[in-house]
């Protein structure tokens, strides 16, 4: 039995991770669960999967869980509880499915404890890729991607030699506004933005798909995961989200990973690698689709993606600032405080103001992060 | 330096193999060359690449070569010469690019001599897959596919476990008549049939693409190369020939190999495996294509493919008979002796008449082969 801890169990990736584990109950056992404030769902999950420990972000939620759960399930709380849950326990693999940069200390704790990471919390690599990958290398720990694009690249690299890779291409559906011009983005509503054509995901990531910030974060994530330069990473619009991403090799051969848009495939692969197991998702029929379409990425239309590349190339704290400013801007958009296009202009302005610190440690990262949040909130 | 012998050097695959070798003149050295009757081209190749030995099928062609080539290049002749060329010499890899079933004895001789096979002569596996694969296994020899579809599958299987494979799908452009109904196939000319939309290939294989016999032979070839059952092999019409083929795994993940239709990529991979080297072909841009299309294979429209599956499932000498009857029928069509649709009806009738010998040896295969040729010539 492989023991798994799931950080962010009540979100979209978290709940689907538990579905996959249930589908293979003979192989996977839950060691720990962590969530934010959704105590009701975490309690339900804990009663069903019987982990040894759970953690909730808020005191109120933790109290609720303590009352509802049997005494042998330990209830932890807050940032410190999360780090303890991630780094302690018997888990072989920790699924990091928290949203945003608060997953970083827990991920580092899990790596230091020698646990494999099934990484869905891309902000971890975006804000501290150099620290996370250095720690993983030092501890000999595998970082297995959960994002469908990175899982695709990871699968395409199976059995291949790093020096034969010319570059990778991440595909992008184009998000909920892909058929609108820039002008037509004026005044779009939160509801419209949340209506993603292919993937059923959380609110933050759905907005990030519409702005293409999500793809930008994925570009930075890919840089760290696969040890690439930014000019080895390309993005292609592929509205059907069937080709999840691909690798081009030196001999002009391209290896791609395809499938229906269903996160349970890459989630499971991160748990079962190098094996492949039966998956509850559906099978792809290309004949049924009839066609797959592609168009060049338009960096003027999707300026946030250009900003992401720029922050990646700038390096240091630039990506932390890009990510933190975006979290605040998206939150403000979701709360109806700003317009959709203001996400982009806030990002631009915050990045302009930022003085980059090269090769930052955790403290410098945290400093840049909160500076970016304050600045993004004030614009 | 890797030493290569090319059987069928004056054909489409042969000449492209020499192009690839020239592109990597620092890695590959020509050991032997064999062709049919095109002495002029073989002489030119021999003068350029300086092999130790050459072989021609006919006495007249061999005499011509002897006169034109320097004395230190040995000139062999006929079936026996071909076997000597393939099995002797210093070649590490023998590229078998002869057309039709006459490549079998030479391929077996090369395997017995412990040489790797870059297999383009699919009829070898179609007529004697059980003998060829048994010999390769016994001698620990690699059979590396040169066909673009099989190279694609081979690449998609890199780093994967055999037990995780659910099945493979070979893509088919649909050939020169893919947009015609069965009725519209009445009275088509040889010229029309030779006009393949994507691939520049020899005459026989271009006709085989139009009848879908080629895909049928590839299905049988794939069965032997990858140790599959026929119900693990599917065929999909993909007019653009960009996805060269793909593998579906147990977790519903699909790995595909893509590229421009250029045989120099799979030819080179068969020589360089497991390395990937720069290739003289062009790079794929999916954005430039804009779309890739797919449609279900229609086994009524392409009855020869259904016959190929039937012969494969029947086993024994059935595939030999399918292939030999087809060689004669295509030859008769190319000579203007029969109609295009008669290829199919000849195949059907010959297969009906045939009494299958299970697990045939070389003699039984040769017997079935010449019986099928006689019968196909008489219908």
Radius of gyration of chain A: 20 Å
The CATH homologous superfamily of the largest domain in chain A corresponds to RNA polymerase sigma factor, region 2, helix turn helix motif
Query: What is the C-level CATH assignment of the largest domain in chain A?
Result: Mainly Alpha
Quaternary structure classification: homodimer
Q: Helical proportion of chain A?
A: 40-55%
What's the number of domains of chain A? 2
Largest sheet data of chain A: 7 strands, parallel
Question: What is the number of helices of chain A?
Answer: 16
Would you tell me the overall average pLDDT of chain A?
A: 95
What class do helices, strands and sheet pairing of chain A give?
A: alpha/beta
Order of helices and strands of chain A: EHEHEHEHEHEHEHEHHHEEEHHEEHHHH
Distance between the termini of chain A: 51 Å
| CATH hierarchy: architecture of the largest domain in chain A | Orthogonal Bundle
